[in-house]
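Researcher: Go.
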Amino acid sequence: MIKIIVDSTQNLSDDYLAKHDIRVAPIAIQFGEESYQEDIDIDRDMFYSKIEELGIIPKTSQPTPAAYAEFYRELSQEGHQILVIAITSKHSGTYDSATLAKTMVPEADVEVFDSKSISLGTGWMVVEAVEGVEAGRTRKQIIDRLAWIRENSYLVITPATLKYLQMSGRVGALKGALASLLNVNPIIYLEDGALEAQESIRTRGKSIDRLFEYMKEKIGITDPVNMAVIHARAPDEGHAMVDRVKLEFNLNELLVEDLVASLAVHGGPGILGLFGYRV
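Model: Structure:
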């Protein structure tokens, strides 16, 4: 049987991961000398409270090769093929860790797939992989499907505040302060696995409108689509986006989740995003 391994950025629910026996290699989140494993000994409430308490943005690091090797060894001994689905290699060393771990367990039959996506972008690929396994498809057939999704899917996000980007050094203090004063919201696109801020839009409402405009440009409103609504501690805005997605797209299936801490670290609470692809 094919078994799936993911990292903790894929944003699927614990219930889903447990139901399908998916192994999770956690991202490390480090506040100074204190290191935590995402969703093991730090949850999102603790993550945000520590940022406010300490006034610092934590550092994150990819799962170690040893963490993957442990999973490879376990699943190989049980006679399984293994498929690893990793966060984009453009922003994390997770793909490299999973690949290096193959040399540590040469007897394991492992393929590592670079999703070139984040959050529920990667999460949707995991869902499709699970469906492929349950349908009896080969690992190559599943990877071919994931590669098609990778090339034909789109993700766009906007943060509510530049505070976290300032604290993490992603924007300068003066530039961030001016942008916040003017209520400017960056629009960040995922292109070939890399997140790029290419627009700045006045007001929160118009920035949300732009997310929808972009997705309509890319996936249309007539073909059936799979989509995701992503929010960071913004359930009311997230629910409003869900209602709008159902109204404005020919929706096949929808995933909705609160953004994982290891990704929210750069944009903070209030991030909103859309992911989608034609079925």
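Model: The longest strand covers residues 194-202.
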